[in-house]
Specification:
Blueprint (H helix, E strand, L loop, with lengths): L1 H17 L11 E8 L2 E8 L7 E5 L5 E11 L5 E7 L4 E5 L3 E4 L6 H15 L3 H7 L4 H12 L7 E2 L1 H9 L6 H12 L3 H4 E6 L2 E7 L2 H12 L2 H6 L1 H4 L2
Antiparallel strand pairs: 1-2, 3-4, 3-7, 4-5, 5-6, 8-10, 9-10
Length: 238
């Protein structure tokens, strides 16, 4: 009984830490619960869930992506979770945890919620060039950021969307919307010239700097497309 109580307290503390203000990324954490089954001690891994009110990007299961708000959470017996998520047009979707691609966190007030939803929605519809403009990111700074990550002392050469904003602007993201812009930019065509998306549990959680040869090849392929050359002349002639 004491062990179960301690585990419940631990789970609550982890939940508070995982979704404290300023947390913009969907992270996969687990708490361990113990139960009895036919006289034996059985273990179940319970996935840490997003709180109700979170603004997220999600896959509807048909290859289409939406921005929505978590309305309710259902905990399954296998430790996984499902969400009821309402999009901007008030359509309700029953979504598995693995279908949530990005979480912008849970806004503190209705006013904040409206602002975050508006920013995320606008960023979700932006082109790669528009995302770069929103991030105030020029071609030289982009290449310098890639070089910095590639030469990281830890040898991992990886960066999260939040880390990327801190690297190029010497400050944390101003908002969930800015973090989401960075996340989308890094996984889209231009960002993927320099970085490879890294998945954890089926979700893109970080980005690895590519080797120099891979970057040169990807850049040549990118700039050979007339549309890219038209939209990103600065980048193609660096």
């Amino acid at each position: 009984m004491k062990m179960a109580k301690s585990l419940r307290i631990f789970a609550l503390l982890v939940a508070c830490e995982a979704f404290a203000p300023g947390t913009y990324y969907h992270t996969r954490r687990f708490t361990r619960t113990l139960g009895k089954k036919e006289g034996d001690e059985a273990e179940t891994l319970q996935a840490q869930t997003l709180p109700v009110g979170s603004i997220v990007e999600f896959d509807d299961g048909k290859g289409r992506f939406h921005i929505g708000k978590v309305k309710s959470v259902e905990h399954k017996s296998n430790g996984k979770a499902r969400y009821a998520i309402q999009d901007a047009e008030e359509h309700l979707f029953n979504v598995a945890d693995k279908q949530v691609r990005f979480s912008a966190g849970c806004p503190a007030s209705p006013k904040d919620e409206a602002a975050v939803f508006k920013d995320i929605m606008a960023a979700s519809q932006a082109s790669p060039a528009e995302l770069r403009a929103k991030l105030d990111l020029d071609a030289e700074v982009l290449e310098l950021a890639w070089e910095e990550v590639a030469a990281s002392e830890d040898g991992l050469s990886t960066v999260t969307a939040k880390d990327f904003v801190e690297l190029v602007h010497s400050r944390p993201p101003k908002s969930a919307g800015e973090a989401y812009c960075a996340w989308r930019f890094l996984k889209e065509e231009l960002g993927s010239v320099f970085f490879k998306a890294i998945k954890e549990g089926g979700k893109i959680t970080s980005f690895k700097a590519k080797a120099e040869k891979a970057v040169n090849d990807a850049k040549q392929a990118f700039c050979s497309a007339p549309q890219n050359l038209k939209e990103e002349p600065e980048f193609c002639f660096v």
